[in-house]
Amino acid sequence: YGLDPYSSYLTAEQVRDFQAKKQNTLAGIGAEFSQVSGYLYVISVIKGSPAEKSGLKSGDVIEYIEAKATRDISLYDARQLLLGNADSKIKLRVLRQAVKPQTIEVARGTYKIPEAESKVEEGKIGVIKVHSLEGGEAADIRNQVQQLTKQGVQKIVLDLRGVSAGTMDEAVAVANI
C-alpha cells in the first residue's frame, strides 16, 4: 500500500517546520499546487493574491522556481521555496498551453482568502463556492447554508473545485454541515 501520486509523506522534522512556518511571518504568493507528470502544476490562484496580480493562472506548469527545476520536486519542498519575506520577489519559469515559456516575477505578500460565496439557481438550488478549508471556514459555510435555507432553497451544491488549502479537521466540519 502507498499514497496516491498527489500525496507524500513528511518526516517529523518537516511537519514541525511546516507548522512553525505556518505561524510565522513568512509570506507566500497565493497559489495552490499539485503535481502533473512530475512538474509543479497550478490548481488555483487566490483572488487578489500576488500570484493573480503577477498573471499566474490555473493550469500553468511551473518549470523552475528561481534556478531550481521543479521536475519531481515534492510539494513540501516547492512550498518551502515559494515562502519568503513579504515584498521579496521570486522568479517562476512558467509553461502555459499555446504560449511561449515565460518568466513571471511574483512579489511575495499577504493576501486574504475570499469567504465562501453563495447564490440561488433555478429550481430552489443553492450553490456555495468554497475557496479554502482553512480554520473558520465551516462557520462561514454554516452561515451561508442558513441564509440559503431562509431563501427557500431545498438543495445545496457545495462547489469545492480548486480547493487544496486547509486542514482535515475543517474539511470534516464542513462535510458534517
The profile of the biggest β sheet is:
6 strands, antiparallel
In whole angstroms, how far apart are the ends? 32 Å
Q: Could you estimate the helical fraction of the residues in percent?
A: 25-40%
Number of helices: 5
Q: Which terms summarize this structure?
A:
alpha+beta, 6-stranded antiparallel beta sheet, 3-stranded mixed beta sheet, 27% helix, 9 strands, globular, 177 residues
Short account of what is shown:
With 177 residues, the protein is of the alpha+beta class. Helices cover 27% and strands 29% of the residues.
Architecture overview:
It is globular, with a radius of gyration of 18 Å. It is 27% helix and 29% strand. The protein is of the alpha+beta class. The model has no long low-confidence stretch (mean pLDDT 84). Helix 4 runs parallel beside helix 5. The protein is built from five helices and nine strands; from the N terminus they run H-E-E-H-E-E-H-E-E-E-E-H-E-H. It has helices at 12-23, 50-54, 75-82, 137-150, 168-176; strands at 31-36, 39-45, 61-65, 68-69, 89-96, 99-107, 117-121, 125-129, 155-159. The two termini are 32 Å apart. The strands form two sheets. Strands 1, 2, 3, 4, 5 and 6 form a six-stranded antiparallel β-sheet that branches. The protein has a three-stranded mixed β-sheet with strand order 7-8-9, covered by helices on one side. Helix 4 links the parallel strand 8 (125-129) and strand 9 (155-159).
